[in-house]
Design a protein that fits this description.
about 575 residues; mainly alpha; three-stranded mixed beta sheet; 24 helices; globular; disordered N terminus
């Protein structure tokens, strides 16, 4: 799933004072209300995504001053929170207390690092994120379109601020490594459409006219959109492209490790804690990874032998090069993915008692970012706004997108993976701020990887190649533990990381290159997948042993997802309580 740390808590002005109320529960509720109201006010696109229309004509700031103000006010809010003893709250609120505390402390600590200024990378950037705003909200009335035009009217100013922050960061030694930035300029210029009607910003106006918008109004909206895109937005993108070319492109870092940046080792340690929700050191994680790589490698050898190959290397070589395993057109790849998605949909009732109501769609990754993007990603929807989730598939470089990857990829990104987990969270009876902003990578991505393993029970790995593809994907996540820590704490080069992944996975060269670039660009994030999956598998094994014949897989899954994304220690306690409850069931 795609996640950008810069925008999750974007420019929030938190309430700095609140009168004492009748008791701790009431005080805590008021504190949560203040926190949520502030997030909505200063992150207008977040507000729109959850159906709050108050700020539909606004676009959040991109400013270090705003970030500093947010953190100063967050510290006041944290003091309010620390004045409320968790044990004085009902049990459900105790979890909310812990998660809010974690959010605020992480926000405050993260703001101390100069890396906070890096709003661009080959993985995803501010300029790419705002280009897709019109594709992520519902348009049902004249006001929706008019508000959208007011919002994108801020883009020239935001792009100027974005450029200034990026240059400031470079002046202080915070830049992206050179090896990851090949083709990056196209992610900027690719947004610029000579014909404004073909711009991504124009997407809402390229659709059919709503019946409640008159022809005259529609013509006016379209004309205004074209004038704004062609006259102001395109030039602002061109200006940033020139800033990148003149002041950023040649100042990239020759060193791939974030530890080489000012205070980089401390930043990496912070990222590891944040992403994994554990206290594991990079060295400990590296050793776990090596152990998992050895285990999975042995299983891959067994699959190859059963398939009639001399060894795993011979089978993987065939899978990487045999034309029959590759789609000839984007449409063919999308059709295979759609068929797999619907096949899995039909198996979901075997795994859950409660299914998410929000549907998901299937889209191609935008062409300007596809060549440097990962194989696929999930974009959450919004029940409040009436927007479905979307599973995005990379249809560039088709000779690097084998069809045997499709089953594992689909269970991870769609269902029972990211869409099921996130859409379920959106329906839970929990504070709105948790539904919209609580993202624990170890939980979310751990669940995605665990879902790949559920494909065994669903029977979707029905050829040796698909099963090897599943193992390769598991190996992919295991090698991340070794490669990410190798790059950022053990002095590995990109070439070492690529060689390690090529030796151990069945991923194609293009995928490996994109993945290693990802680990370089987003330190620590990739560690969360395998560590989260290992925790969920451990909890399932614990529950199966403790409950014996009373173990119900569907109830277990409902419980894992039943409190939304949480730190791994909170999940452990949650399943422990569930096991004790299940013992007492008749």
């Amino acid at each position: 799933m795609r996640h950008n740390r810069h925008f999750l808590f974007a420019a929030a002005t938190l309430a700095v004072a609140a009168p004492a109320l009748a008791g701790p529960t009431e005080d805590f509720q008021k504190l949560q209300d203040d926190y949520w109201a502030a997030l909505l006010k200063n992150s207008p696109t977040l507000a729109t995504s959850v159906g709050v229309t108050t700020y539909d004509r606004q676009l959040g700031e991109i400013s270090l001053a705003a970030a500093d103000r947010q953190v100063a006010e967050a510290a006041v809010l944290l003091r309010r929170l620390n004045a409320i003893a968790p044990t004085s709250l009902p049990s459900a609120q105790q979890a909310n207390h812990a998660i809010l505390k974690d959010n605020l402390e992480g926000l405050i600590e993260g703001n101390k690092f100069g890396q906070r200024q890096l709003y661009y990378s080959i993985l995803g950037s501010y300029h790419g994120g705002i280009a897709g705003m019109g594709e992520q909200q519902a348009f049902r009335s004249y006001a929706d379109y008019d508000n959208y035009l007011a919002r994108i009217g801020f883009i020239p100013d935001r792009m100027r601020d974005y450029g200034a922050i990026s240059v400031k960061a470079a002046n202080e030694g915070f830049v992206q490594p050179c090896v990851t930035m090949t083709g990056f300029a196209k992610t900027i210029t690719g947004v610029i459409a000579d014909d404004p009607a073909k711009s991504r910003f124009y997407a809402p106006f390229a659709a059919s006219r709503p019946s409640n918008v008159s022809e005259a109004q529609w013509a006016d909206l379209q004309a205004r959109a074209k004038a704004l895109i062609g006259g102001k937005i395109n030039p602002s993108y061109q200006a940033f492209a020139e800033t990148y070319d003149r002041q950023l492109k040649d100042r990239c870092s020759k060193n791939v490790s974030v530890s080489s940046q000012p205070n980089g080792a401390a930043y990496y340690a912070f990222q590891v804690r944040q992403q994994t929700t554990t206290d594991l050191t990079p060295d400990a994680i590296h050793k776990i990874g090596l152990g998992e790589v050895a285990r999975i490698r042995a299983e891959m050898g067994q699959v190859a032998t059963k398939a009639g190959f001399a060894n795993r290397e011979a089978m993987i070589a065939d899978m990487r090069t045999n034309p029959k395993y590759f789609a000839k057109t984007p449409a063919e790849l999308m059709a295979a993915t759609a068929l797999m998605a619907k096949t899995i949909d039909g198996k979901m009732p075997d795994l859950f008692n409660k299914l998410a109501r929000l549907p998901y769609g299937l889209k191609e990754i935008p062409p300007e970012i596809a060549p440097g993007s990962t194989t696929a990603y999930y974009q959450p929807g919004s029940p409040e706004s009436g927007v479905a989730g979307n599973y995005y598939v990379n249809t560039s470089k088709l000779d690097q997108r084998p069809l045997w990857e499709v089953p594992a990829l689909t269970v991870h990104e769609a269902v029972p993976g990211h869409h099921m987990q996130i859409a379920t969270q959106q329906e839970l009876d929990m504070p709105a701020w948790r539904k919209a902003t609580s993202y624990y990578t170890a939980f979310v991505e751990g669940w995605g990887l665990y879902s790949e393993r559920l494909g065994i029970e669903m029977g979707i790995y029905d050829t040796p190649q698909k099963d090897m593809g599943r193992l390769s994907y598991e190996m992919w996540r295991a090698t991340r533990l070794v490669v990410d820590t190798g790059l950022h704490s053990k002095g590995w080069s990109k070439e070492q990381a690529v060689a390690f992944m090529k030796d151990n996975t069945a991923l194609t060269d293009a995928n490996i290159d994109a993945e290693v670039n990802r680990y370089i660009s987003n330190p620590g994030q990739a560690l969360a997948y395998k560590l989260g999956e290992l925790k969920i598998r451990d909890l399932r094994t614990r529950a199966e042993k403790a409950l014996g014949s009373k173990f119900d897989l569907r109830r277990f899954h409902d419980t894992v997802l039943g409190q939304g994304a949480v730190p791994l220690d909170v999940l452990d306690a949650q399943i422990g309580r569930w096991i004790e409850t299940e013992r007492l069931r008749g």
